């Protein structure tokens, strides 16, 4: 009888443990979010999915070198949790702007993850002088029609910069033959990748011996694609309300100089700071516009910001 009681107790204990594990695995809600935050932290070796691809072009994971390099980027980006959560938050805000521009230009949707690793979806400035979400160099921007000077720098205009990135990527694809190599060329340059391919007598990115940065580049993109596409699989827990929102705006056409953007902003019920948040390409508190060029300035719709008196 005692043996039976002990057995039943043990079974009951296992059942309780199972329920506890199941509770921890539930999707996060307001009720269990704090409990998960405190109790549900573990570090695991990751299983590299065997069907990874970039823009429909498979990653050759049967090659042990490729497998190890892919594993590294999945580990690094999964367990850099604070950065990972920021990527989820920013992606919710900026992907809806980037995705339709890629689609319109016939560039695979996977290239939005290139923007993630280039800048973390921020208006970053590189030591080499590349700027904006797409990290465009001054010469490349000007060659593709962007205005770049001390007064206006359209590399910070996400819509226009995405258009320029699409032009460059399509040109790279045409010259190099694959979207994977086009992505590598975004980091290493079309001429640079072409020289490496010729010198090493290969025609595929994964067969190239490259420096640290360009050598990790595609693996980082694919890792971010995998993680951002499957948050639960990689242990990221968040609610919809935790993500950043894309504030709806309308465009105001300006074809004259603007002497004072602070006063200009007040005319639309916002302040200068908010105007700059939505128009970071306006680099000074005024607009010269001696040529009477047409500019489109984004103004947030009413009710999303509360400004002081």
TrEMBL record:
Task: Using the record's annotation, list all stretches that form the Transglycosylase SLT domain.
Answer: 98-201
Asked whether the keyword Metal-binding is assigned, the reply is no
Indicate whether Transferase appears among the record's keywords: no
Annotated signal sequence range: 1-23
Q: Which residues cross the membrane?
A: none
Sorted keywords for this record are: Signal
Task: Name the protein family.
Answer: Belongs to the transglycosylase Slt family.
Q: What is this protein called?
A: Lytic transglycosylase domain-containing protein
């Amino acid at each position: 009888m005692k043996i039976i009681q002990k057995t039943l107790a043990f079974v009951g204990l296992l059942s309780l443990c199972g329920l506890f594990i199941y509770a921890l695995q539930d999707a996060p809600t307001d009720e269990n979010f704090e409990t998960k935050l405190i109790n549900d932290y573990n570090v695991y070796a990751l299983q590299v999915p065997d069907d990874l691809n970039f823009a429909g072009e498979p990653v050759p994971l049967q090659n042990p070198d490729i497998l190890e390099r892919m594993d590294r980027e999945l580990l690094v980006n999964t367990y850099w949790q604070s950065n990972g959560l920021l990527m989820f938050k920013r992606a919710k805000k900026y992907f809806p702007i980037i995705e339709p521009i890629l689609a319109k230009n016939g560039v695979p949707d996977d290239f939005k993850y290139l923007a993630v690793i280039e800048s973390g979806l921020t208006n970053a400035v590189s030591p080499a002088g590349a700027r904006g979400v797409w990290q465009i160099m001054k010469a490349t921007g000007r060659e593709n029609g962007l205005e770049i000077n001390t007064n206006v720098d359209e590399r910070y205009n996400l819509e226009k910069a995405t258009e320029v990135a699409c032009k460059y990527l399509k040109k790279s694809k045409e010259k190099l033959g694959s979207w994977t190599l086009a992505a590598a060329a975004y980091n290493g340059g079309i001429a640079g990748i072409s020289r490496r391919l010729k010198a090493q007598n290969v025609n595929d990115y994964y067969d190239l011996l490259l420096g640290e940065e360009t050598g990790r580049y595609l693996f980082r993109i694919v890792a971010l694609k995998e993680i951002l596409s499957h948050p639960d699989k990689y242990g990221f827990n968040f609610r919809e309300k935790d993500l950043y929102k894309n504030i709806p705006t309308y465009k105001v056409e300006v074809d004259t100089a603007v002497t004072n953007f602070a006063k200009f902003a007040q005319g639309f019920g916002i302040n200068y700071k908010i105007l700059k948040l939505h128009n970071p390409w306006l680099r000074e508190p005024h607009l010269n516009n001696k040529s009477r060029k047409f500019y489109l300035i984004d103004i947030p719709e009413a009710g999303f910001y509360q400004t002081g008196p």
